[in-house]
Amino acid sequence: MNTIMRKSVLGIAGLAFAGGLAAGPLHHTTTTTSPTAVDAKPVAVAVQADKPGVDKPGVDKGKLIPHGVRGDQSRITLDGEQTANVKAIVAATKKAGLDERAAVVSVGTALQESKLENLGHLGDRNDHDSLGLFQQRPSSGWGSPEQITDPEHSTLAFLQGLKQVDGWRDMPLTEAAQTVQVSAYPDAYAQWEQQAADLVAEHWNS
After folding, report:
1. Which residues contact 119 (CB under 8 A, 6 or more apart)?
2. How many C-beta atoms lie closer than 10 Å to residue 9's C-beta?
3. Would you call 136 helix, strand, or coil by DSSP?
4. 8-state DSSP, 132
5. CA distance 106 to 199
6. Residue 74 main-chain phi, psi, to 5 deg
7. How many Å apart are CA 52 and CA 24, to the nearest integer?
8. Number of C-beta neighbours around residue 1 at 10 A
């Protein structure tokens, strides 16, 4: 397969779920193989036009999508486990002292990387050693497999990376996520911004 040299402010790690690349927190360059897209299970995705976010009291909608959404938006129906993972991401964002926008970036990233499923090793379908909601790699310094598959730990690790991105608050979601994840498909995160915002609005004060 072709190799690609990539750089990030955080460093580059291995390929993540659905063609993403979970950047390691310490290294600066690496050589990676071309991405192979995989799915944990079939998921029906409906492409929709933009729609208003959930109107919840106490949620600043200006913080949720300050730059508007890019392109067609995708949406999936969440089961109980996926909803619990959204709540865990929101709780970890609050624990990190960050606001709703950081939660939207985190949820949108996890929607793209894992469809909000806390994935273990997928055998032949696994993309290197990528695991968890954000498809982070133990070999790239994100933590042990047990830590990476803990929703709180993986979210806090992602947010630590996000905080190192200069100007992340002023970026569209897909650019902020891409700078941390270094995906082979840098625009893929954009499609989840509306659903991520709706989920954060729904669960931020729940």
Report:
1. 17, 40, 130, 131, 132, 133, 135, 149
2. 13
3. strand
4. T
5. 11
6. -105, 160
7. 35
8. 8
**Integer CA distances (angstroms), 124 to 106, 127, 130, in order:** 27, 8, 12
* Chain segment 142-160, per-residue pLDDT in tens: 889 999 999 999 999 999 9
Phi/psi of residue 11, nearest 5 degrees: 110, 170
Q: Is there a contact between 43 and 181 (Cβ–Cβ < 8 Å)?
A: no
Whether the model clears a pTM of 0.70, i.e. scores above it, the answer is yes
Sequential DSSP letters for 6-17: EE-SS---EE-G
| 55: number of Cβ within 10 Å | 8
Please compute the mean of the pLDDT values over residues 161-172 and round it to a whole number.
95
Beta strands in the chain (DSSP E): 3-7, 14-15, 21-22, 29-33, 46-48, 73-75
| C-alpha R_g of the chain | 15
Q: Answer whether 30's CB lies under 8 Å from 6's CB.
A: yes
Which tokens hold the place of 141? 């310094």
pLDDT tens-digit map of 72-120: 999 999 999 999 999 999 999 999 999 999 999 999 999 999 999 998 7
11: Cα separation from own chain's centroid = 17
Question: What are the residues whose beta carbons fall under 8 Å from the beta carbon of 164, sequence distance 6 or more?
Answer: 9, 10
